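To the team - FE(8)-S(7) cluster complex, inputs and output below.
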Amino acid sequence: MNQPMISLDSLLQPIDVDALEKTAASGGCSSSSCGSSAKPDDMDAATWEKIKDHPCYSEEAHHYFARMHVAVAPACNIQCNYCNRKYDCANESRPGVVSEKLTPDQAMRKVVTVANEVPQLSVLGIAGPGDACYDWKKTKATFEAISKEIPDIKLCISTNGLALPDHVDELAEMNVDHVTITINMVDPEIGAKIYPWIYYNKRRYEGIEAARILHERQMLGLEMLTARGILTKINSVLIPGVNDEHLLEVNKWVKERGAFLHNVMPLISDPAHGTHYGLTGQRGPTAMELKALQDELEGGAKLMRHCRQCRADAVGLLGEDRGQEFTLDQLPETVTYDASKREAYREIVAKERGDHVEAKQAAVAAVKDVAAEAKLLVAVATKGGGRINEHFGHAKEFQVYEAGPKGITFVGHRKVETQYCEGGWGEDATLDSVIRALEGVEVVLCAKIGDCPKGMLTAAGIRATDAYGFDYIETAIGALYAAEYGVEPITAVA
Ligand code: CLF
Ligand code: SF4
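Output:
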């Protein structure tokens, strides 16, 4: 079949085009890495096949692949103290802006339009803005229609778990490989502080009884999914003073019942959101508190640390949101799926990814070889592709990595409220908020930084450099760590 010519530029907008073109020009990928797989050694091939292009289930995939959510499920059967129905579901979103709710037909038009224009798209998720399992008819109609039109798109669902056991068999029949359950407690006494009521079997329950029913349904749903081989991720909202230490217990319970990943997310709480927690002054954790708990959880159920708490209508790579480009009023009346961009993108990424994996392995080995106990927290400005390819002033977030005796690990991201160079010049007040967001970070790596912000960062105890611009993230961090602790830096991979 003839395919239209597609320019790399139009294909790979958020990814660094120069770096990918360099790869393509050198014969597609470095000769030694052709065919190398990013599959971790301790993972079976079937599981890898399910997660390898899923930006949430694979940290490595999130550099390359995008998800989109369609907000077709507004109804909910419980009340969480961190949620206000006016806003997006806090299970899978950051509250703040009301979603544009869609019918299944509108969702179909939107997904096809996005699939034609965003080649990174690999996953369609339904994450509210209410509960996808409670608002089941719309969820099911949407998944069925879209999987017929775009058979290779992965279907993903997020739920509070109360109605989940009623739909596990249908999820399995629809080939839904990925389910997220938000589980904030396994002790109903703690649950009663998080959930004032639930609506179950046509009755409203309150307090400890409500939390006990929710807990039992969540555990049952998780066990049923595990029995059917569906990968389940557990999201837990970290609420300081309510369930922080308790999440160690949650981690144990979900691991025992086969959860694939545990994603601990910070409570987002602000009086302006009108939530119970926001209005009563319940604070969220700091970035360092979240990291400390995640570090404590290491060794239990495998952790997800790259969650961006997406909106229920998010579109794009994690950490970017292109939803505003695809609002209903901008969608064409009729649209036909064209697979060519997504197929071309996958081909290029497969080559780039093999190269990246080799570079990462070399960097991790080099860091482990350094006989130092020290840990180095590094923030990276990137717009995808696993490379340092974003200017300091344009970064909407920084990805944070830790280098140390265990190698190089991704430990989270720090959101920047306002970019330093918004409008073309830097604002000192904005830089102060960026510096606050970088709490605990020792070095910032970016594609470009001016002398002024660099000097202010230095004064705040944060070193910043663009010397590793366009390198792979791990290669740069490896070189930095090796240089810092007195051995020869490893060679950067172009
Ligand atoms: Fe969406 Fe959730 Fe599926 Fe991902 S999001 S339904 S698993 S496709 Fe991902 Fe967003 Fe975190 Fe969710 S970053 S909020 S974990
Ligand atoms: Fe809100 Fe989601 Fe909780 Fe329902 S499950 S109350 S929509 S956060």
